[in-house]
Structure formats: C-alpha cells, structure tokens
Amino acid sequence: MKIVIVGGGNMGKTYAQSFLGSHIIRPYDLITLERNADKHEELRRHNILNIEKDPGVYLENCDLIVLAVKPQDTESLFPTIKPFLKEHHLVLSIMAGVKLQSLEDGLGIKKIVRAMPNLPAQIGMGMTAFTANEEVTKEELIQVQNLLSTTGKSIYFNDESAIDASTAISGSGPAYIYYFMDAMIKSAMSLGFSESQAELLVWQTFQGSIHLLNKNTLNCEEWIARVRSRGGTTEAALNVFNDKNLHSSIQAGLKAAFDRAVELGN
C-alpha cells in the first residue's frame, strides 16, 4: 500500500511515525506532503524522509491519501490536489467537522473515510471513531482500521453523526481530563504541597484509578461507592460537587462541544 499524508503537523507526523513504527508500511511507500519547508527538518528528525512540498504526479500512484490538515485549509487544499486524484483513490480525512459530502464535492472522488482521533494517538493510546461512505469496500475499511489501530483503539460507526458525537467525547475529551487534573493540582498546592508534589499526587491518582477500572468489571458508580464512606472525606467532596451540579455541568459542556462540531460541519 502506497500512502501520502497531506500535512506534517502533529497528527500527520503521528500517523507517519505510527505507520512506519508498526511496519504496516515500508518507508519508501510513504510520502508526506508538507508545504511549510520549516517543518521538513523536524519530520526528518523523526525518520520521515520522503517529503514533498507541492502536489505532483506521485499522488496519482498512491493508494491512500490521508488528509491531516486544519479544516479551514480545505478551500486552498482541495483545488491543488484534485487534479491528481483518480477514481481508485481512497481518502482518509481526520479534519474535524468536514463531512463526507463536502469531501466528495471538494475532491471529486467517492471513496472517503472520515475519522476523529484524539491527542493520545501520539503515544499509541488514542481513541479514533471513523465512518465511511458506501463506495468504500469492506476490505478497504479493514485496511484503514488496521492503520488507525497503530495509534491506539478504533471503532467504526455506520452513522456519520456519531463522528460529531465522538468529537465531543473522545476527541475533545483529553482537555476535560486535564482541566479536572489542573483543578486538583491547584487545590493541592493551596493545601501546602509544592508543585511537583501536587503533580505527582494527582498524576498517579489518575493513572492508578484508570488501571484499576480496566482490571475489574465494576463500573464508575460502583467504584465511587467503594471509595465513599458515610460521613467521610470523599462524601464531603462529592456533596459539594452535587450541590454545584457538577455532573450536569459536565454533560452540558459535552453537549455544547457536540453542537459546535455540528455547526462547524455545516
């Protein structure tokens, strides 16, 4: 399989490294198209050696084109690569909010996969939701899922609206986690811990809690009940959270993220 990754930013670089590191593709079958020459040296430092600055006939000879650029770049990108695209090409887009129909209309081809990865893909711990239009074959879907799975876990959805929903949950999700961790770290420092002590306390608490959840069959509510005791410290904190409607606020925030994802797509 010959692959061209359009965009050498964080996610483009992540995919290139993951594809090569998993040996799912040979180095000479991967090309990165990056217009910003200043990024070329950075890509080479990560053993991404086949780099092009401008679209060219090499696009015609590839099997898969990965679009890893910002959504606002589509107006300038599509006209430059469209002349090189052929009917056999398969396109994988990770551009947030750009719908399948917009990709079909802008690129003039039918075989499109749309995916929503998240930041932990950079360390092989990502969560990616993806969908595709009807022209993508089952074999091609399996090939794409194998590629996506080099960055972590992936899940396929028939309904494209699930991609906007996953954007609100897993796509933006790391920021919510860091937001809560930051609040805990600042709280720990206000209680007298140094910054490094506060970070260690919070980071290890999060890591241990996730691993414990993964190693057992109990759900979150059941684990809360195990930590919580009547009249204890955990209950005191949870009572404040409940009084402040924190649970509802989190749900409202995720709904706002979903609405924004839909708005961007429109």
Give the secondary structure arrangement, pairings included.
Elements: E1 3-6, H1 10-21, E2 30-33, H2 40-45, E3 51-52, E4 64-67, H3 74-81, E5 90-93, H4 100-107, E6 112-116, E7 126-132, H5 138-148, E8 152-156, H6 161-171, H7 173-190, H8 195-214, H9 220-227, H10 233-243, H11 246-265
Parallel strand pairs: 1-2, 1-4, 2-3, 4-5, 5-6, 7-8
Antiparallel strand pairs: 6-7
What does this 3D model show about the protein?
- The chain has 11 helices and 8 strands.
- The protein has 266 residues and is α/β, with parallel strands linked by helices.
- It has 2 domains: 3-158, NAD(P)-binding Rossmann-like Domain (Rossmann fold, 3-Layer(aba) Sandwich), CATH 3.40.50.720; 173-265, ProC C-terminal domain-like (ProC C-terminal domain-like fold, Orthogonal Bundle), CATH 1.10.3730.
- An 8-stranded mixed sheet has the order 3-2-1-4-5-6-7-8, sandwiched between helices.
- Helix 4 (100-107) links the parallel strand 5 and strand 6 (112-116).
